[in-house]
Design a protein that fits this description.
There is one protein chain. By secondary structure, the chain is α/β, with parallel strands linked by helices. The chain has a domain at 32-225: Cobalamin-binding domain (Rossmann fold, 3-Layer(aba) Sandwich). 30% of the residues lie in helices and 12% in strands. A 10-stranded mixed beta sheet has the order 3-1-4-5-8-9-13-12-11-10, with helices on both faces. It has a 3-stranded parallel beta sheet with strand order 23-24-25.
Length: 732
């Protein structure tokens, strides 16, 4: 395969510029020997990743590597390099175009540390789960080493780690606000979100000889510029304080007042044009054109670093500019004086179409780990190899979740034909496949093909969630296409069973009894994981999650259809402890609800503040960015001290004897000693058993624990380019 020297002039979709009938490599090369076997003297692009290289579309380096290969580029992989020197980054020689740097499918800090900042003993994305094979803040470290290995070679960064650190952000692990990853890594450009289209366009333009520092017009990209820089054309800048001014909120003038509150405008001068009523369509078009040439200046890094209200304000403005249909460019200054530089962030990428999604997932993946790993076990691969990702994105808007910041809220779905083809690929290429497909899912199992009923409304909407505080009347919640997909998939020869492992959005599911019946009758393995997250409205309102009543309605439907199917099946609910806004009383009420429903949870989670999430803003600033922020606005208290976080986590495992001492102490301090005793209405017994069962190893962040990436059951993070798709996600 030869390298494509000329660039496609413009790429309206990922199919433009792709080479028909190209010869795919068995695996993207990880050594000079493999390059020589392919007849290559140099790679066009070298992707550096913190994960083991698994040639499967659920792993980012494979997904974007195969996509670039389809466009004629020679792509090499450097997987989990030794970062202590630059030597490992010279393994494949100097790339002709650029290094693409990614931490892997997970943020390197989430991957390594628990929510209590303890080091994990395993890494699911490493052969034999060996820990310590990637550095903390891997994107920054890898970028610096690649620059050291080949000075002057362009550096392109991406993945979940870079995507969620594109502006100044609160960093839980250092407990401070850090700069954007761009000045720290000194990368030339950052690609965020579903960046396949931007990556292909960037690569073609670099291949045509365009300098990387001149490529500033791609959506879904961020870069450093001198203060005052703007793209060519008539642009204007708006200070974010003019849009959503923090501080004391002045009363709006009364439009019905008899006396004017301000001087009347001067009469029009002679010769002025008469007043014209502008049609609605013309007004909308004018606003859209105006927004396309507008950049919003966020408070600088220095301002948000030292000001909690300013940090919350910046977070609120950032999230309000997340809809690709109306988002404006953002700019944030880093530094002061002559050394100051702006981080410029272009609007988010336009979501992929169904044909584009199919093209990305239909590449000739080997569907196996690279042969160099031999028989080593890679836990993430074990969990994902028989799962299929059918969609991307999430419009739920949960504040503790990073999907919207990374993938967006517009659902991008594959076609039935593409999904069925992948099932057949698994059947035909996986020697250990026994007929069980373990998931047809994504960030959420049942948002497949859901969208706004009106494209115009979707493009102008600024809501952070389509389902909170209630399901939007403009949202099409039809599950029929998903039901048809399940039925087609079950009919594939060689498929004996299909179970759904991705989390379910139960408030949507209850709108389709047909879907719930189909799911419960054919696609539950006995236990269905689901995540109400909490029972108390005080906490749920900070999460942007529906009330517990929606969960209970779904539970009744689940039990009904399980009985009709003649099956004994159970729901496994997931909950979060110590979420911002949660009081001790909220956690106590949740514990009493769990006891009343006889839920004895095994794996539980303590809230982990991840970069840029709205709940992280609440944790750091104690302000609620879901409303207008001011010094006098609502204070959101949260459990920050280790002892309080342990108490909240203990409430979730009220039945564990090891938690009884801290629960007794907490109940006494709360004035609820009446719940200590042996009666049926008590939460914990008065006496400790002689031999309490130890709870060692019951790590408290099952949602945050590194797990499989694709069908995405667990952590809300998760394809960017040169990024990795999401880590396995918990139920929604």
């Amino acid at each position: 395969m030869t390298s494509l020297k000329a660039a496609a002039p413009a790429l309206p979709d990922l199919l433009s510029g792709a080479i028909a009938g190209y010869r795919a490599a068995p695996f993207l090369p990880m050594s000079r020997k493999e390059m020589e076997a392919l007849g290559w003297d140099q790679c066009d692009v070298i992707l550096v990743t913190g994960d083991a290289y698994i040639d499967h579309p659920s792993f980012g380096m494979a997904l974007v590597g195969r996509l670039l290969e389809a466009h004629g580029f020679r792509v090499g992989i450097i997987s989990q390099p030794d970062w202590h020197s630059a030597e490992a980054f010279r393994a494949l020689g100097k790339p002709r175009l650029y290094f693409g740097i990614t931490a892997g499918n997970m943020d390197s800090l989430v991957n390594r540390y628990t929510s209590d900042r303890k080091i994990r003993s395993e890494d699911a994305y490493t052969p034999n789960a060996e820990a310590g094979k990637r550095p903390d803040r891997a994107v920054t470290v890898y970028a610096q080493r690649a620059r050291e290995a080949f000075p002057g070679t362009p550096i392109v960064i991406g993945s979940i780690e870079a995507s969620l650190r594109r502006i100044a952000h609160y960093d839980y692990w250092s407990d401070k606000v850090r700069r954007s990853v761009l000045p720290d890594s000194k990368a030339d450009i950052l690609l965020f979100g579903n960046a396949e289209r931007a990556l292909v366009a960037l690569t073609h333009r670099l291949a045509a000889g365009e300098p990387i520092e001149s490529i500033r017009d791609l959506r879904g990209t961020a870069f450093m510029v001198k203060p005052g820089w703007q793209p060519s054309g008539d642009w204007h800048e708006i200070d974010s304080l003019a849009l959503d001014k923090p501080g004391r909120i002045d009363a709006h003038p009364d439009p019905y007042a008899m006396e004017p509150t301000a001087a009347a405008p001067k009469a029009a001068a002679d010769g002025a044009q008469p007043v014209r009523i502008v049609p609605a369509a013309e007004r909308v078009a004018a606003r859209r054109a105006d927004r396309a040439r507008t950049v919003i200046r966020l408070p600088s890094y220095e301002q948000v670093k030292d000001g909690l209200v300013m940090y919350a304000h910046a977070s609120r403005v950032f999230h309000l500019e997340s809809n690709p249909g109306n988002a404006r460019a953002l700019v944030q200054c880093h530094g002061e004086g002559p050394g100051a530089r702006d981080v410029w962030i272009n609007p988010p990428p336009v979501p992929l179409t169904t044909p584009e999604m199919d093209f990305v997932y239909d590449r000739p993946y080997a569907r196996a780990p690279h042969p160099s790993y031999g028989d080593a076990r890679i836990p993430a691969w074990d969990m994902i190899k028989f799962s299929i990702n059918i969609m991307r994105g999430c419009f739920g808007g949960c504040t503790f979740c990073s999907i919207t910041e990374h993938e967006g809220r517009i659902i991008q779905s594959r076609s039935h034909e593409s999904i069925i083809h992948e099932i057949e690929e698994i059947r035909d290429k996986s020697p250990d496949f026994k007929g069980h497909i373990t998931d047809l899912g994504g960030p959420t199992a049942n948002m497949y093909r859901m969208a706004c009923k009106s494209k115009a409304i979707e493009e102008n909407c600024r809501r952070l969630s389509c389902v909170y505080p209630g399901i939007c009347e403009n949202l099409d919640t039809d599950h029929s296409s998903l039901v048809q997909l399940y039925r087609k998939a079950r009919a594939v020869p060689g498929v004996k069973r299909i179970t759904i492992g991705s989390g379910l959005r139960y408030d949507l599911a209850v709108r389709s009894p047909e879907y719930v019946k189909e799911l419960v009758t054919h696609h539950v393995s006995g236990l269905l994981k689901i995540a109400p997250e909490h029972t108390e409205e005080n906490t749920l309102s900070k999460m942007m999650k529906p009330g517990i009543g929606a969960y209970e309605e779904f539970a009744r439907m689940f039990e009904k259809y399980s009985k009709l199917a003649g099956k004994k099946q159970h729901l496994v609910p997931y909950f979060i402890a110590a979420h911002p806004g949660t009081t001790d009383e909220d956690m106590l009420n949740l514990a009493l609800w769990l006891k009343a429903h006889n839920f004895r949870l095994d794996q539980v989670q303590t809230f982990l503040p991840t970069p840029m999430a709205l709940a992280t803003t609440m944790y750091h600033s104690r302000k609620n960015p879901l409303r207008k922020v001011s010094a006098e606005s609502e204070t959101v208290e949260t459990a920050r001290a280790g002892k309080i976080r342990k108490l909240h986590k203990a409430f979730l495992r009220w039945h564990d004897p090891e938690n009884w001492p801290i629960l007794r102490e907490g109940l006494i301090q709360m004035g609820r000693a009446d719940l200590i005793g042996n009666g049926p209405n008590c939460l914990v017994p008065r006496q400790q058993p002689a031999a309490a069962v130890p709870a060692a190893g019951r790590e408290g962040c099952s949602k945050r624990k590194p797990a499989a990436p694709a069908a995405h059951k667990g952590r809300r993070e998760k394809p960017a380019a040169p990024a990795a798709p999401r880590a396995a996600r918990r139920p929604r």
